[in-house]
Specification:
Elements lengths: L1 H5 L3 H21 L7 H6 L10 H4 L11 H33 L3 H35 L4 H4 L23 H34 L7 H4 L13 H18 L4
Helix pairs in contact: 2-6, 2-10, 5-6, 6-8, 6-10, 8-10
Length: about 250
């Protein structure tokens, strides 16, 4: 009801992101190679659904997949992030033109408010999808020749460690790895660092409050002292994926 009356407010966006962070970190903790008590594993069986990809619906349980599971999981984790970013960019440009055409100041403020809610919504969705996408991107490099692990029986081929029936030398997998490398550099590494640098720059020159309407979607969920927490949490998730997914395979 509050969303209908007030729109997608800062308070609501913060609660959604905090809940998503908690569930995703809990899921990453359960991926650690430990002998978890059966009661904990059974009570948290719903957790894979927070990945917001094909792990949520598990299509392989209902029909035979025409492609490998990893390809499906990779596509449904990475592509939606890019689609959300593209749609948000297009909608933001459209609303920018509408603001420029506004004649009255009150109308301009109202449209700026709508534009801010769109940016806030896009940032929230991106933050929630960042962890599963980063996990699949990093997992694409879990190959025998990359990690030099001894957990495989066949050392003569570049075995994919998450599905040892397939190899990383296949052409489709090579394409996936090339796209993953590009996504890893631009989105998983440079984007959080860019957000961190930009927010710190705004705080240094005391521009956080002044630019709240235009750039607040990057830091408005936190106070001035913790304004960089969003990119820090994103980088922490990447580190958690490395520790819970790749490191135990070595």
């Amino acid at each position: 009801m509050a969303t209908i009356v007030h729109g997608f407010t800062v308070s609501l966006a913060t609660k959604v992101k905090q809940l998503g962070h908690f569930l995703q970190f809990l899921l990453l903790s359960l991926k650690m190679r430990l002998d978890w008590p059966s009661l904990i594993a059974q009570s948290l069986v719903f957790l894979p659904s927070v990945d917001l990809n094909s792990h949520t619906f598990i299509p392989e349980c209902f029909f035979e997949l025409p492609i490998r599971q990893f390809y499906l999981h990779w596509t449904t984790a990475v592509v939606p992030v890019l689609v959300v970013a593209l749609l948000a960019h297009i909608l933001d440009k459209f609303m920018k033109r509408k603001i420029g055409r506004a004649r009255k100041e009150e109308e301009r403020k109202l449209r700026w408010r709508c534009r801010g809610q769109v940016r806030r919504c896009a940032m929230t969705v991106f933050v929630l999808m960042f962890s599963p996408a980063a996990a699949m991107i990093i997992r694409a490099f879990a190959c025998q020749y990359t990690l030099s692990t001894d957990v495989v029986l066949d050392h003569t081929d570049n075995i994919f460690l998450y599905d040892q029936q397939h190899t990383c030398s296949e052409m489709p997998f090579q394409i996936i790895q090339a796209l993953s490398l590009l996504y890893l550099v631009l989105v998983v590494i440079l984007l959080p660092l860019g957000l961190l640098f930009w927010i710190l720059r705004l705080r240094k020159f005391n521009l956080l409050k002044q630019n709240l309407a235009t750039q607040g979607w990057m830091y408005e969920s936190y106070r001035r002292r913790f304004c960089v927490l969003e990119p820090v949490v994103m980088m922490r998730k990447v580190l958690s994926v490395l520790l819970t997914d790749l490191y135990p395979l070595q």
